[in-house]
From TrEMBL:
Keywords: DNA recombination, DNA replication, Endonuclease, Exonuclease, Hydrolase, Nuclease. This is Nuclease SbcCD subunit D. Residues 267-353 form the Nuclease SbcCD subunit D C-terminal domain. One of its GO terms (biological process) is DNA replication. The gene is sbcD. Residues 1-218 form the Calcineurin-like phosphoesterase domain. It comes from the Bacteria. Signal peptide: none annotated. Residues 401-411 have a biased composition (Low complexity).
Amino acid sequence: MRVLHTSDWHLGRGLHRVSLLDAQRAFLDHLVATVEAREVEAVVVAGDIYDRAVPPLAAVELFDTALHRLAALGVPTVMTSGNHDSARRLGVGSGLMEGAGIHLRTDPASCGTPVLLSDAHGDVAFYGLPYLEPSLVREELGAETRSHTAVLGAAMDRVRADLAGRAPGTRSVVLAHAFVTGGEVSDSERDLTVGGVASVPASVFDGVDYAALGHLHGCQTLTERVRYSGSPLAYSFSESGHRKSMWLVDLDAAGSVAAERIDCPVPRPLARIRGTLEELLADPAHARHEDSWVEATLTDAARPYEPMARLETRFPHILALAFQPEREEEDAHASYARKLRGRSDQQIAEDFVGHVRAGRDADTDERDMLSAALDAVRADEAAETGHAVPDTGTGAGASAGAGHTVTEGAR
């Protein structure tokens, strides 16, 4: 049986300020075309159909269109809910959709009830395991402890028990949305540790022919029988090195697995670049990124003036800007507290401005504002106590009154 394995569509999600709805539509066009061209016999989607529990209307309409197109092909589709989905909302109407060949598995209680499909070699049992939050499903599944390994293990026990009661030679596919040990993470996946230790061993899937995983956004092979398809699009710059794809999996009569990667359309490449502003604007090596979505990290010692606007002149699709000043090792590790000794309140305040701005000192207007602020604080303190609070020029005055508030905050 030929199976197309995909996951983590995250319909409705964007990349920084850019909508990815058109790119998601292009991916679904590609998926339908692949099903037709490669004679796929079943489509499996391992969770995170949507990006959030209450998705925007445009995302719902896109999903609805995809379901109609897949149903029209007559190719069965098995889908599970992920940790980004609302399982209850996604599962609405699932019983009615069964007749159209769309099988939504969102109820933990149905883990051991497969979708049975057949080919020339007999039955293939597809078990859809929705995302299992330990604190919510532990009792229902009879898990021994409140952990991801325990609840997924309990669900797989149901799968193996059902499979054991079926005809010899029945092949099996499990869809699961989980963080399996050995998988490589990115910044895009929502942390699962709120429900206990997040990772589960790949051995939890022992006894089935193929485990189609979702959650991690990079396409990965943990074992020949346990794979992540990854997301079809990059949803953060941490995925800039990913090759986005789906798995085309062939299960032979004996349940052996042969898998081929099917590349997904790339709406625009992602690039992470780093250097001083002038280097990024002038270096010819960055010419290949001029049409990419760009994340730039500036290493200038002092923050340049209007860096985003200047970078946009070369990289019109820049989306993110970060600052990581590169300083001399001595400056980077020097104790700021030691620098306060013997300094006046005015000098301390000015030094602090230069310190937090990576070497760009206070200008004349800023120095005047700091001086006026310190004078006002001392005047208020004098009015309350009846004693003048001088700035001794050694930093000692700061400890006597309101100047203490300023320098303590600086520390």
